[in-house]
């Protein structure tokens, strides 16, 4: 039985303005597709890994295609297609002039989805193949059916859902789920968290940054103020004070993005984190006592708050806790597919989650070599028969490396197959990597990957059991190890750990073990392989591009060790630029303060205003003529350089490339692709 789960919006890559799910378009995020065959996950992808737009909410056409390729099937061979929204809340609207993108007469959502998918993938689909499932039931199923538990309390919490719930509480037994309560969108602690972080210069999807800032603050400073934001009620219920937002506005001057953090900002973050933990623990304490369940499953975006998850473990309310690692909306594609799989073939049991390596594997050694040859202007490389040993020596010697092996991970964490790795000991490494690779705030911590055999020697394990393989929990570092692990120990003596098993990722396990033999430390600093503007890399070419646009010392793909060549800017004339399908060039005509006509140019992506930047007129014209075949040199000859120097045009193109607003490929790779 073949089941395809889908989450995300309904806009195709080139579209903007088509809304659905009773929500604003920009609140739809983290599109994904998951393929389950006979109860087992065969492939899973977030759309962002393929269209290279963080948190992309586009209809996951590339993710669907990749899952089908991995599964070796066509779309019309799928028995059920599951979409993560209840049918009663899936509505179609168009906005103003953008109606030209869609002119469908459908009032039946299933018929609409069948037609959309069938037309895009050029197959015939029936609406009877399409199933729509409640948003939070998908969250719940993604956690429970992957946990391996028979009986459990299930709690899902996120920002909002089209059905009106920001959370559900359920009791599970023997594969059946019984609803115990819900959290309305109006009382969403996820949305509350988002509102407060705006005062700290952040926005949606930056929650983890504030979680990392909180340990620098004192929650007691603003505890009384934050207690006015909520009221705890009997039976695990609570209410948020909807007018408290105005109290916050009167109490603080918002921090503007880029401004330094004051102690007040840190104290706000600490009080916010404490408030979240108080409310969630209030829910868990009541329902644990009411149900007697000793096992807990959680999903929904709030379940990505690793600090909160660690507090749940140390509280000792449950014997076991399972947090679904892709707890955000991408995980609903998984949950929806699991629900359908259980319904269609109840006799087929889902395997307990063992790993998340569900993406595409890197190519064979010949395939890696072929790609590297196309980038020979920019990189040198050599193949080694001892890649694990050589990589361990590089890291022990102080190098920061990109490590690309095997199948890519599903979810928001790099778990050793698409990772940036470094020595976890020097505290200075945290600052170095934050500035040279991530280009992000220096306070933010990095995660340790530790061999599972040594975890109790380095971290204080709570009595409550949990899988530590997915960076879901913040644990206390043993006091005698905190100074030793300076780069991966946070200011409060904690770490968001990942244990590594030889059974599930032998090559990564061996790398850490080789580092242990050299240093007597069975730990590596592990962070996702990407810069601050892009999702985690997926393909070999993604890795090369990220390597070239960051200051990573060495890149290792398969058995190849890769270094950068010094190149002149003239080499970039041989690149072929291409705009993403989801981009648009814009020209606006306005006036200067003196009353003169002024033209402004920009490139933007169809997902949130932060994915845009201003252009010079010369680069605007060059990109206007780009077709994915002509080189920069050819486009300059076609459009002319105007008043801007050629070297400045190249600099601007490189900046756009670093921001992932355009792609650049060597002419050689384009020529190979078109043969």
UniProtKB/TrEMBL annotation:
Protein name, per record: Nodulation protein
Pfam families recorded: Carbam_trans_C (PF16861), Carbam_trans_N (PF02543)
Top-level taxon: Bacteria
Ranges where the Carbamoyltransferase domain occurs: 27-338
Species of the source: Paenibacillus roseus
PANTHER family xrefs: NODULATION PROTEIN U
Family of the protein in this entry: Belongs to the NodU/CmcH family.
Carbamoyltransferase C-terminal domain residues: 392-564
InterPro entries in the cross-refs: ATPase_NBD (IPR043129), Carbam_trans_C (IPR031730), Carbam_trans_C_sf (IPR038152), Carbtransf_dom (IPR003696), NodU/CmcH_Carbamoyltrnsfr (IPR051338)
Annotated GO MF terms: catalytic activity
């Amino acid at each position: 039985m073949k089941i395809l789960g889908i989450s995300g919006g309904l806009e195709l890559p080139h579209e903007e303005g088509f809304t659905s799910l009773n929500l604003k378009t920009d609140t739809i995020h983290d599109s994904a597709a998951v393929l389950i065959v006979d109860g087992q996950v065969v492939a899973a992808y977030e759309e962002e890994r393929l269209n290279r737009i963080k948190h992309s909410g586009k209809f996951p056409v590339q993710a669907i295609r990749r899952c089908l390729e991995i599964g070796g099937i066509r779309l019309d061979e799928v028995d059920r297609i599951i979409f993560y929204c209840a049918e009663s809340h899936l509505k179609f609207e168009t906005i103003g002039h953008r109606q030209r993108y869609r002119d469908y007469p459908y009032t039946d959502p299933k018929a609409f989805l069948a037609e959309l998918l069938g037309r895009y993938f050029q197959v015939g689909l029936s609406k009877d193949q399409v199933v729509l499932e409640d948003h939070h039931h998908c969250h719940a199923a993604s956690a429970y059916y992957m946990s391996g538990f028979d009986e459990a309390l299930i709690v899902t919490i996120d920002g909002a859902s089209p059905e009106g719930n920001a959370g559900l509480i359920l009791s599970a037994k023997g594969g059946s789920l019984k609803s115990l309560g819900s959290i309305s969108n109006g009382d969403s602690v996820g949305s509350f968290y988002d509102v407060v972080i705006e005062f700290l210069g952040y926005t949606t999807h930056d929650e983890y940054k504030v979680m990392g800032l909180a340990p620098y603050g004192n929650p007691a400073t603003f505890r009384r103020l934050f207690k006015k934001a909520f009221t705890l009620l009997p039976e695990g219920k609570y209410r948020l004070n909807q007018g408290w937002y105005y109290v916050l506005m009167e109490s603080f001057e918002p921090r503007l993005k880029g401004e330094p953090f004051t102690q007040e900002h840190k104290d706000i973050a600490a009080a916010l984190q404490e408030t979240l933990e108080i409310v969630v623990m209030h829910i868990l304490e009541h329902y644990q006592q009411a149900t007697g369940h000793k096992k807990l499953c959680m999903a929904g975006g709030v379940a990505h708050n690793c600090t909160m998850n660690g507090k749940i473990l140390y509280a000792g309310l449950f014997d076991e806790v399972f947090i679904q690692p892709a707890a955000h909306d991408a995980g609903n594609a998984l949950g929806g597919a699991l629900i359908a799989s259980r319904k269609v073939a109840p006799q087929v049991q889902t395997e307990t989650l063992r790993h998340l390596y569900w993406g595409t594997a890197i190519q064979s050694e010949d395939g890696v070599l072929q790609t590297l040859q196309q980038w020979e202007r920019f990189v040198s490389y050599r193949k080694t028969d001892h890649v694990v040993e050589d990589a361990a020596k590089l890291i022990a010697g102080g190098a920061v490396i990109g490590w690309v092996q095997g199948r890519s991970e599903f979810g928001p964490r790099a778990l050793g197959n698409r990772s940036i790795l470094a020595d976890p000991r020097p505290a200075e490494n945290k600052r170095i990597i934050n500035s040279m690779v991530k280009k992000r705030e220096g306070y933010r911590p990095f995660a340790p990957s530790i061999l599972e055999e040594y975890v109790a020697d380095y971290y204080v394990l709570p009595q409550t059991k949990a899988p530590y393989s997915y960076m879901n929990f913040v644990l206390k570092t043993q006091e005698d190890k905190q100074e030793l692990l300076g780069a991966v120990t946070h200011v409060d003596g904690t770490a968001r750990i990942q244990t590594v098993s030889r059974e599930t990722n032998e090559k990564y396990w061996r790398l850490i073990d080789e580092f242990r033999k050299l240093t007597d430390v069975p730990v590596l600093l592990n962070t996702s392989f990407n810069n601050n503007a892009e999702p985690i890399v997926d393909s070999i070419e993604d890795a090369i591009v990220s390597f070239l646009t960051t200051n990573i010392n060495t890149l290792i793909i398969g058995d190849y060790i890769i270094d950068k060549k010094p190149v002149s800017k003239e080499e970039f004339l041989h690149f072929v630029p291409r705009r993403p399908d989801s981009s648009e060039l814009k020209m606006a005509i306005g006036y200067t303060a003196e009353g003169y006509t002024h033209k402004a140019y920009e490139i933007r992506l169809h997902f949130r205003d932060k994915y845009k930047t201003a252009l010079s007129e010369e680069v605007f014209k060059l990109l206007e003529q780009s077709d994915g075949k002509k080189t920069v040199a050819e486009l300059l000859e076609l459009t002319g350089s105007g008043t801007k120097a050629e070297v400045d045009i190249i600099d601007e193109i490189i900046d756009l490339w670093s921001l992932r607003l355009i792609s650049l490929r060597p002419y050689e790779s384009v020529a190979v692709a078109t043969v």
